[in-house]
Please model this.
Amino acid sequence: MEPLNFINGQWQKGHSGQSFDTLNPANESIIASIVAADVTDVEAAVQAAKDAFNPWRLTPAPLRGELLFRVAEILRERKEELAQLLTKDMGKVIAEARGDVQEAIDMAYFMGGEGRRLLGYTAPVEMHNKFGMAVRDPSGVVGIITPWNFPIAVPSWKIFPALVAGNTLVWKPSPETPAISAAFVKVFEDAGIPKGVFNLILAPGADVGRALVSHPDVRVISFTGSTATGRAIAQDAARLNKKVSLEMGGKNAIIVMEDANLELVSDATLWSAFGTSGQRCTAASRLIVQKGVAGKLKESLLARTKQLKLGDGLNAKTDVGPVINKVAQERIHGFVQAGKKEGARALVGAEMTAVDGKGFFYEPTLFDGVLPGSMLERDEIFGPVLSIIEFNTLEEAIEINNHSQYGLSTSIFTQDVNRAFTAMRDIASGLVYINHGTTGAEIQFPFGGVRGTGNGHREAGQAALEVFTEWKSIYVDYSGKLQRAQIDNREE
Ligand code: NAD
Model:
């Protein structure tokens, strides 16, 4: 299927007249050529979403939920087909691509169930013959802007709660993944989504995203991507008093105590650091190891990292796929070169490479001797690069974790319950794992980070509904007379 924009229920080419190509990063073949949308298309999409809002808002929430269940069923039927397309579009290995689709299935069922919940509350009121309740209203037209690294899972964290709550939306996915994005929207079309409720805009560059953020009829922006883009979006949106939910960069850490099960640490570290070629927002890029076990752990990691097989993600034997594109490959290499210059030692990897002469690959890299506060310890690299930092005490390890400008995911390996509970209390991150790597969030819990990673909102779980609903407090006075709160019924 040629990826097209989906506006008011119609698949259509963009008005820019200009095409952009997307490449399979494993072999550089062209996946799709897309005629890009421009601001005219944004205008049409927002207008369609605006027109569709009232009927969708007034559709009973349980019926909106049922549509999500139909989406879930179709996703299940197409899981393999979608996973293969996803791997071609952005490179992650097929097992992870299946997981990406599964996350959307899980979220569809979870949020479909919200159609019969969307809980508000009642509370006692201070007057006689008066009733009070708080209910959730949809916000209106929502703008959704997403990255390429979880092209189905991340959008699903936003799209399902937005829809079940009664909003209509315009989605601008990353220009790196238009094919899988259009295939995802097709599922909603086939499930019977009314026209205008869900609109898709495909375009490269920042202009179309900015037009969506700056459109006065878009009331909420839900964004996942880099911290720099998120900040720019927040500034644009602030001019129009919009609600903005930002999920941004990470510099996640695994803390290893001397009493840890090192074999488990080694399994979890390889998965967290090099899965999705290190391009997860929750990827572990710092391994903070207590000095007594650092030597042994490095030895095991080094041996196992050398054995990782790079290749096309569609090949079941591949451990690590490509990175997203040439620019990313060169950017990662720039970080690695700078890391060497600041005195860290690359134990393995540290090279751009190709497989069968093609593709944008980066060798899984381990850096030793990384110091707290150095560039390697501080900056998000978003590639398969793991920096090893040594420490003496648990307090020191937590301090190294918490001083990061980011605060998404931290894990700690220890068999000591006192240390585990101290870490649970003192680690300042949105996600904390005990004896598990930094990735593996489940959709029923809030997802998001602190400091430079987020702006106080959470995705997934019921927390996601806070982003896409407005609280409305309703008072019903059945006394038949004027009753003044805080004044009547009070003794002076
Ligand atoms: P990016 O910031 O370059 O792009 C994200 C999206 O924003 C894309 O759709 C892009 O076209 C759009 N965009 C770019 N400039 C814009 C502007 N000025 N106005 C509006 N839209 C604009 O990010 P990316 O390279 O696609 O993704 C990688 C980043 O995403 C990493 O930093 C990663 O940590 C982060 N990420 C975070 C989470 C999380 O939940 N915290 C999850 C996944 C990825």
Observations:
- The longest helix spans residues 94-114.
- Residues 145-150, 154, 172-175, 206, 209-210, 213, 224-226, 229, 232-233, 247-250, 281, 380, 382, 408, 449, 453 surround nicotinamide-adenine-dinucleotide (CB under 6 Å).
- The domain at 252-434 is CATH 3.40.309.10 (Aldehyde Dehydrogenase; Chain A, domain 2).
